[in-house]
Amino acid sequence: MKLRPLILTSLLALTASAALAGTGVQVDVYKSPYCGCCTKWVEHLRSEGFEVKSHNVEDVPAQRARLGMPETYGSCHTARIGNYLVEGHVPAADVRRLLKDKPKAIGLAVPSMPPGSPGMESAKPMPYETLLISANGSSSVFARH
User: Fold this and answer.
1) What CATH number is associated with residue 135?
2) Closest CA to 35 of 91, 90, 88
């Protein structure tokens, strides 16, 4: 039957477009109005289908503390995604995995601002880790990039 390949192609196209259409999860990003790399990270999430609402705040560390992310893992922006916090330049794929796996944790963090991470694109990327932050403030490696 010639109709079968057409149906299969149509189903694959629908699956791909649904994946790109969005996650259905609101992302609230708290960032400095003066930080370009934070804006690039927001663009990264949007290009990956997340619905992002960006909040410019003058004191990101105070916002981080209010939300509950330990300062030890601080970076230049903090986000709330579902019941989780995401600190710094965490790749969208890691956020998707977090939301899929639903571990008991505060969330994810990429401390500092590693060259090559989303929003910190670089001709000389460096290896970095995404950390899973547990409720007691300890961390474990969630992903290596």
Assistant:
1) 3.40.30.10
2) 88
